[in-house]
Amino acid sequence: MARRWVFPTALVLAALAGAAHAAERPVGEGPFGLAWGPMDRIDTPSMVDREANLTGLYYLHDRPLASGPDTVEVVLVVCREEGLQQVVWVGRPLDVAAHATARDAVRREGVLRYGEPRPGPVPGSLEWPAGRTVLATRTMPDGTSELVMSASGPDYAACSESHRAATGHPAEAHVADLLGSGVP
């Protein structure tokens, strides 16, 4: 499941706070109008990847969840027992100035929603624990940068621990691979 995951600029945090196609027992609002937990319906993804208890649903720019002008890809991570527990958004490549502007806009929106961020799990990243949201940057070979946002559901830790038991690595390793930061 070593795929790329991403989120759009200022609209990202807005989308990362929506409410979804929830099954019978919704457990809170997730990004893009989704709900954390079991799902009873999903839009057709561009591709699907499975590893142990995780199913990654990848939506490339040609699919509804990822069709925004600033979006390259959206990934939904669905856990066997816990349902939807992570949404990852990857933004389009930006030059230095555009990246700085977009990152600042997302940071300001995050502060409005969740308060001041703390340093995140990878160098240069930001984390809003109250929103279970991380904003990071991925540098591309051509020198451009992509914003990457990850929002996690309330049962993500349990899902990740089950994944570690089955594979030897936590679910977080997949986002770490995306950012090139290695396994946490």
Give the gist of this structure.
With 184 residues, the chain is an alpha+beta fold. It contains four helices and eight strands. Strands 1-2-3-4-8-7-6-5 form an eight-stranded antiparallel beta sheet, with helices on both faces.
Structural description of this entry:
There is one protein chain. The protein is about 25% helix and about 25% strand. By secondary structure, it is an alpha+beta fold. An eight-stranded antiparallel β-sheet has the order 1-2-3-4-8-7-6-5, with helices on both faces. A hairpin with a 6-residue loop joins strand 5 and strand 6 (about 125-130).
Features:
alpha+beta, globular
SSE diagram, text form:
Blueprint (H helix, E strand, L loop, with lengths): L9 H6 L31 E5 L2 E7 L10 E9 L3 E9 L4 H19 L3 E2 L6 E3 L4 E7 L5 E8 L3 H12 L4 H8 L5
Antiparallel strand pairs: 1-2, 2-3, 3-4, 4-8, 5-6, 6-7, 7-8
What percentage of amino acids are in beta strands? 25-35%
Mean pLDDT: 84
Give, in order, the helices and strands.
Answer: HEEEEHEEEEHH
Please, how many helices?
Answer: 4
